[in-house]
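Question: I have long wanted to understand how a fold can be written as tokens. Here is the record:
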Amino acid sequence: MKRVFRSLLLMFILALAISSCKKNTKKEVQQENTYVADNYTKKEVDIEMRDGAKLHTTIYSPKDTSKEYPILMQRTPYSSRPYGEENFREQIGPNIHLMKEGNIIVYQDVRGRWLSEGHYENMRAYIPNKTSDQDVDESSDTYDTIEWLVNNVDNNNGKVGVWGISYPGYYATYATIDAHPALKAASPQACIGDFFFDDFHHNGAYLLSYFRVTSLFGTPRPNNDQPIDTAWYTFPDLQTEDQYQFFLDAGPLKNLNSFFEYETVDTPTMRPEGVTDDYFWNEIKEHPNYDELWQSRGLIQHLDKSKSHVATMIVGGWFDAEDLYGPLETYKNIEKHTDGYNTMVFGPWDHGRWARRNGRSLVGNYYFGDSISEFYQENIETKFFNHFLKGDGGDNSGLPEAYVFDSGRKAWKTYDSWPPPGVEKQTMFLSRNQNLTSDSEDVEGIQFISDIKKPVPYSEDVKTVFTPRKYMTDDQRFAARRSDVLVFETEVMEEDLTLAGDIMANLKVATTGTAADWIVKVIDVHPGDVETNEEMQDHLKMSNYHLMVRSEVLRGRFRNSFSEPEPFTPNKKTDVNIKLQDVFHTIKKGHKLQIQVQSTWFPLIDLNPQTYVDNIFKADEEDFKTQTHTVYTDSSIEFSVLK
């Protein structure tokens, strides 16, 4: 299968680890392009870790040396480029304010990436009890880096902050574990928490949307792990713009193996001798369950080692299609295990959008307001870092525990805790006649056919893209009108209903097969008189718009244990409980609350054969069967409702 190399820019776009501030006038753009070079000096160093590996590090220091500055650092697998001390980034730091106020900004290639030495491991496992200098992980590498920086960089004030979005956000979380005493502030943003629940999997279901970027994390570095300053990744060329049809035609997952067999690469000199396939793809297909491999790489379970002297601000987007589990669980577990300063900020953003300056704030077709990201950068992010790195660093930062955006009311709210005080659990039942009611009725089963040849698409607008973003707010009318999607909704709301916190779907189901996936979507059905925003796709109107507020899948084999899967007994009523991630959304008066239940979500996730096999990545064509599923009317949805 023919391969193509992607440029470094693609990786920056995929991760949104680095965002450029965009202005409206040509003059302002030109000023930004030279600001860093005009006001900062640049130095590149290779910092030696305790085991002898040297990590390539780029340091931007203010030219004004009349005062001391804190150090703000980002560790990244996506490159600290541009390389060469004569070449400057157009913007540095978390945002334009922190850049222009003056900080020492540091970027580092993590171990085994780009110009850093060593072997790269995707989600490197934390080593809790290190007994020698050879016991290294991202925590020790961060510690050793900070130790060198505070002792060798001129004009630093001895205080360090870390930040990062997506994978760099994961490294920012890692920095809080066994943290260096000089680390005073960390802001993990859209941070990966566990690859079995973030990014590549959702509750055990494999995300086909990540298929094309598997090589970004699994292609072995050439030249025996020696540093290299160019991209060595290979990306499958699907040779189509119709992703739905491509994966439907491809059939079982094992038919995709050929995309990761390196003997077919056009430039074989770019792979190490003896390496014939992508090791991360192999890990995915050989470890379909939540076994020791995935458990050891998860970071959430180690946050009891986070140090209380590090103030943390977790940032996420309510409509982040990539990393929503990570930041929510990171905040909750740091809150649970440490008594230090810990806050969360969640806005109406998709993946990393808060780092941009783009005026009108939209996710897909849905408009949330103006200058929301700009507000966050100036009034929240800058304030956080300045307080802990330049101010007194006390608990009174002026920021609340939770700075959260109500995506229904389209307004910021602040609370002293999350979920907010006053939240109560409220249960609604999936009743007959498409009703979502507060009272249970006589139990009956509602059936639908899950046709393996005609799976439910995740959007009516499926294109060949890496992890679609707009589907998180897509109009769900197309799905509500399919026979294989069950719909339950309330009457028109007579007063506002604010959902604030997690949602639990407690399904009672059966299937004629022995395996099935279950997808639950929470929908805000708009009334007919809502004005359409100017950016909406031409074929859509906001009138009766079915806004997806939250959605989640559970691979049914994992209903009792993610480590020990089990089949369904055909036609037996079975409990399937699905935790949906937190929301903060008001279903306004005049709207309706709707629940959709389905069993396929293609090609966002892979197809379940609907007959049980030990490993879906090795399933055969004949394992895939159309089945009839049943949802019983004593199924319920438990909401967290703010009174």
User: Anything to note?
Assistant: The first strand starts at residue 3 and ends at 4.
